[in-house]
């Protein structure tokens, strides 16, 4: 498989994963059927970061990345969404595909002590 195809696939996968979490979050927190304005903004921002990421080929997930290209305020929002939706997704989807989410949550917990 060529690098470009793999890159493209990873970008799509990462977007899809984030979409799912964002939808769960928005539905429960904002009582919105479709993504609300605030969440659409977050989605837009995250999509751009994913597309620009130099490590898309082999990193676990943006929020877990060392480079931290997210603005502080956005990063906090994204982490909140992941924490809220990540555990809920465990019941619907194979754990394997969302391993990065749990890795990140675990990492955060460890850091906090
Ligand atoms: Zn929302």
> Which ligands does the model contain, each kind named once?
zinc ion
Secondary-structure class: mainly alpha
Q: Low-confidence runs (pLDDT<50, min 5 residues)?
A: none
Supply the number of structural domains: 1
Number of strands: 0
Task: Count helical runs.
Answer: 4
Beta-strand content bin: under 5%
Using only C-alpha atoms, the radius of gyration works out to 14 Å
Give the helix level as a range of percent. 55-70%
Element-level helix/strand string: HHHH
Question: How would you describe this structure to a colleague?
Answer:
The protein is mostly helical and 113 residues long. It has one domain. The chain is built from four helices and no strands. Helix 1 (3-29) crosses helix 3 (72-89). The protein is globular, with a radius of gyration of 14 Å. The termini are far apart. Bound molecules: zinc ion. Zinc ion binds at residues 26, 30, 32, 35-36, 38-39. The site of zinc ion has 7 residues, from helix 2.
């Amino acid at each position: 498989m060529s690098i470009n195809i793999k890159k493209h696939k990873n970008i799509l996968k990462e977007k899809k994963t984030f979409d799912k979490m964002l939808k769960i979050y928005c539905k429960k927190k904002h009582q919105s059927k479709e993504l609300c304005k605030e969440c659409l903004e977050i989605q837009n921002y995250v999509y751009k970061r994913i597309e620009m990421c130099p490590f898309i080929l082999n990193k676990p997930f943006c929020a877990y990345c060392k480079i931290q290209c997210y603005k502080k305020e956005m990063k906090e929002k994204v982490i909140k969404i992941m924490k809220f939706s990540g555990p809920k997704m465990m019941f619907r989807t194979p754990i394997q595909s969302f391993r990065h989410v749990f890795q990140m949550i675990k990492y955060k917990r460890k850091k906090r002590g």
